[in-house]
Design goal:
- The complex is a heterodimer.
- By secondary structure, chain A is an alpha+beta fold.
- The longest helix of chain A has 23 residues.
- Chain A is globular and about 55 Å long.
- The mean pLDDT of chain A is 89.
- Helix content of chain B is 38%, strand content 20%.
- The radius of gyration of chain B is 16 Å and the shape is globular.
- The two termini of chain B are 24 Å apart.
- In chain B, strands 2, 3, 4, 5, 6, 7 and 8 form a seven-stranded mixed β-sheet that branches.
- The chains are: A alpha+beta, B alpha/beta.
- Chains A and B meet through helix 1 and strand 4 of A and helix 1, strand 1, helix 3 and helix 5 of B.
């Protein structure tokens, strides 16, 4: 799995982690700023701000051929997975999005990781420009946990998929 | 609100419980959360958010440096400060703040205490009355003691909480 060295993408990853930390402090330490609301049918409604959670991990991906880059968060709302990437999931991990890899046995279901979401954005953009992405051409920033800003190892699925 | 297993394993969720009278904050780091907790998680988040800070930063104790550098691999002071920031902030609200230790293993439910308040709130203070009214489950357990916080690592909080909730439900029947 290739490591990425672009300072721009690294700084985007840090900026996203910082944004999530700012939201967390906003949620827990701006007392009284976001009061409860009463809905028309009399229910107490807690403001949406309190529903924001940290992503478990944030990472950035760059296609070393086109230099297209994007960041991704674990659990981000990817509804449409790129066909090329789905094919790579199946061929290299032996499964589809949401399943446990039959090849690696990694506990994280396929399509969970920040790296895979970031790669999906990159694959889609390559396709929009008339090209085709290749998992072997993807390079990654370090994976950062936004709550603690700590660096973590890539999971076995990602290491196998993007080898 | 029920959370899907996909959501739980891709988010680092704050959850809360009272154990042996102590208000506890737990960072899930993509780990599992007992279902009884997630059903009313949002209310507990709202009430903790409105809990005032009762301890200054100087009144917060943190887990020893050796644990942070050896187990978590945090070498510099900046790394350690960054790591502890949200946990210390929770401790300033009077909570015992835990983190999941081995976040690369989704099935590992061992936690370590990161930060805790030096001063326990005064008995029968308005704050305690507020705490009594919190929509947060309260359990008793003899598997965990807050007498020596520095020893609180390798604690299977998920199992302790599940057992505590089970006992509560049995008592209600």
């Amino acid at each position: 799995m290739k490591s990425h060295t672009s300072k721009t993408l690294d700084s985007l990853v840090f900026a996203e982690c910082k944004r999530q930390r700012d939201l967390w402090f906003d949620k827990y330490f701006k007392v009284g700023t976001y009061p409860l609301a009463i809905t028309e049918n009399g229910y107490i409604q807690i403001p949406d701000r309190y529903k924001k959670e940290f992503s478990a991990m944030v990472a950035g991906c760059q296609d070393i051929v086109s230099n297209i880059e994007h960041i991704g968060c674990s659990g981000c709302n990817t509804t449409i997975w790129n066909d090329e990437l789905k094919e790579a999931f199946f061929n290299r991990l032996g499964g589809n999005v949401g399943e446990i890899s039959s090849i690696t046995g990694c506990d994280f279901p396929i399509g969970n990781c920040a790296e895979q979401h970031a790669a999906n954005f990159v694959f889609n953009e390559i396709e929009e420009r008339g090209g085709k992405g290749d998992v072997a051409d993807m390079a990654f920033t370090r994976a950062i946990r936004p709550r603690t800003m700590t660096v973590h190892d890539y999971c076995l699925n990602c290491r196998t998929l993007f080898a | 609100m029920p959370y899907s297993s996909h959501y739980l394993h891709t988010h680092d969720i704050d959850w809360f419980i009272k154990i042996n009278g102590k208000l506890v904050h737990i960072a899930s780091a993509g780990g599992s959360i007992p279902e009884s907790i997630t059903t009313d998680l949002l209310s507990s988040v709202y009430y903790v958010a409105n809990l005032p800070e009762t301890n200054d930063a100087q009144e917060i104790e943190t887990i020893n440096e050796r644990f942070l550098s050896e187990i978590l691999g945090l070498q510099t002071q900046e790394e350690r400060d960054n790591y502890m920031l949200t946990f210390k902030s929770m401790a300033q609200k009077g909570l015992y703040s835990f983190d999941r230790t081995n976040i690369s293993d989704v099935l590992d439910n061992n936690y370590h205490l990161v930060a805790w308040p030096q001063n326990s709130p005064e008995l029968y203070s308005p704050r305690d009355l507020y705490l009594e009214s919190l929509p947060i489950l309260s359990i008793e357990s003899n598997e965990i003691s807050f007498d020596n916080p520095k020893k609180l690592h390798d604690v299977d909080l998920f199992e302790i909480v599940e057992k505590g909730i089970k006992r509560l439900e049995e008592r209600k029947r």
